[in-house]
Amino acid sequence: MDLSRRRFVQTALLAAAGAGVTAACGGDSDSGGTKNGKNLTLWYWGGGLSDKVVADAKKHFTDVTLKSSVIGGTFKQKLLTTMNGGSFVPDITGIKGEDIASFLPNANRFIDLNTLGADKIASQYLDWKLKQGQTQDGKQIGFPIDIGPTAMFYREDMFAKAGLPTDPAKVAEEISTWEDYFAIGAEIEKAYPKSFLINNAGVIFDMAIGQQGKRMVDEDNKFIGDQDHVRKAWDLAVRPYELGVDAKINDESLKAAVADGTLATYLGAAWAALDIKDMGPNTKGKWRVAPLPGGPSNQGGSFLALPKECRNPEVAFEIIKWLLSPENEGRGFTDAALFPACPAAYELPALTGGDAFFGGQKTIEVFGPAAEKVPAFYEAPTNAAVTVPYYNELTNIEAKGKKPDDAWKDAVSQAKSIAKQQGVS
Amino acid sequence: MVFLFLPMVYSLYLAFQRWDGIGEKTFVGLDQFRFLLDDPTFWLALRNTLVIWGLATFPMLFMALALAAMLNSTRRLTGFYRVAYFVPNVTSVVAVSIFFFSAFSDRYGVVNAALQAINLPSVPWLNNEWTIKAVIAMLMTWQWTGYNMIIYLAGLQAIPTEIYEAARMDGAGPVRTFFSITIPMMRPIILFTLIISTVNGLQSFTEPQVLFGSNAAANPNSGGPGQAGLTTLLYFYHQAFDNNNFGYAAAIVWAFFLVILLFVIINWRTVQRGRKA
């Protein structure tokens, strides 16, 4: 409980840092003149970039000294606090996919990368991902490192015993809609009475929302969380629960469930392959990958950005360009399972090889097309906060047996009041 | 003094603003507090906090006192016992939370395995709203019993042995002595531990945060299934650092500060009144 007191102190410090910002802004202005600094700092988190590519970047850019720091703990908070303080702000920083929306309202604290030539190389990168790093008036704040195209991972051996198709191409054909997907739940249960189709309802909700372009708040800052597109995703999420094929796993026993065959399928992004390998090393060779029922969505994938304090924007952007070139993105995939945001990289040997964990399947054949088909979406800065009640209410259904209709009503009314509190109309 | 009070005053100032951490602050008057009164999640979090505090504090203080009384009358290995009971207090809450997490895990935990071994049904410890609170309370009890015991032990050793001898002459057994001599003599120390435990116990944060993962990108720090482990400070943390809703977070802690103050006053008065009677 000592830690809890420390949290208080941390907030207090953040608050104090906030007080300092006005002073810092005043004193800093003369350092912003020339902007040809020779020392550049780069912040990222463990696994956020390939360490080897970063090490090579240091050798490649000889006229500046690049210093990289791997920041542990909650990255967003540390970046926020530092930017607030106004000193020791990194010249180049990573921003996680789930955090980018919350930084966009403060676009004036970053450099618009289009002024440095980002628009000239934009065509090599996926449109929808670039858009996620843009403000509504088109300033490019974040440049995409990686993406998370989603797919359905499935246990080939369990599918075989349940009399289902096993070949990825055949699976793709026969399980192409959510209805097809829910239908196989019964077959699996017949063959494996103790197994389930899916780990929890929240996963399906997340995927189904991601399969279309709207979220909870629209471009005009209006709450749309009570509309059909959300209700449809909600109904899909509840289906496995109603059919009795939802394992209702909302804690870390997921790990054991993957390892011991409790789950016949696992819905996740390309990087989830790494999680499955970690959770169930003994299931090597038994998994395969097929497209997500109902079309692809995206989960995660980060950005690099230049805070306005950056001491040498031109060189810093050259470094970003180099770090995220198709070849280096290919290396990022090999070293850190970062799925490239530029389709040109999908042709590289690093991605086209077969994966023994998936029985030698060339997973890029599933993820590559999925990546290009993710629908572009608008994510409001308040979206994450407004979405929380939906997930909480889905767990209420699973943990307390709450009636899905009541849960929906409560989720919408809470989401509405959170939206209102956050200034959404 | 500046370091002590400036952050406090600043957070009070923040409670009247809307602020995302780096952008412009907007003055919103009492809006944050008005929303707080209507926010079902805040009340849920407050209720959770109080229940967890109650489940943890009373058994903990009673056990600590009983252990201290027993230890006070042992003659052998006293040093060993003192250290052994105090060790939980200096271990990392995070590490212990992780241990509790795996021990109480539904399908694969040691606790459920043990229950099944003696033919009892397994309990979904981390999926039911009451057992979630019980697990968090157990964790806190486990960690803080030894600490309180040491304080009680110090107090016990200050009670003159003549009083105990006199009681024994009058024919009082150990249980009678405990309730008629030990507890009344220890009143000021019990008050002290009660206030410390109130202030600490109401601030439970790390336990639920670690138990119910902050790793889920879509819904971090929700407090577990049914939000049963969402304590007030965890909710505050979620608002401030997941939602960047610093103004509202400040309003939460200030409202919560008033609650803690109220509790300390109630504690104080009850124990004081008991003394006069």
From TrEMBL, chain A:
UniProt cross-references to Pfam families, sorted A to Z: SBP_bac_8
Record keywords: Signal
Record has Cell membrane as a keyword: no
Signal sequence range: 1-23
The organism's place on the tree of life at top rank: Bacteria
Claim: Signal is one of the keywords in the record: yes
Gene3D superfamilies, per the entry: Periplasmic binding protein-like II (3.40.190.10)
Name assigned to this protein: Extracellular solute-binding protein
Organism encoding this protein: Streptomyces sporangiiformans
From TrEMBL, chain B:
Main location: membrane
Signal peptide feature range: none
Pfam families: BPD_transp_1
Source organism superkingdom: Bacteria
SUPFAM superfamilies linked to this entry: MetI-like (SSF161098)
An individual GO BP term: transmembrane transport
Cell membrane listed as a keyword: yes
Name of the protein this chain belongs to: Sugar ABC transporter permease
Organismal lineage: Bacteria, Bacillati, Actinomycetota, Actinomycetes, Kitasatosporales
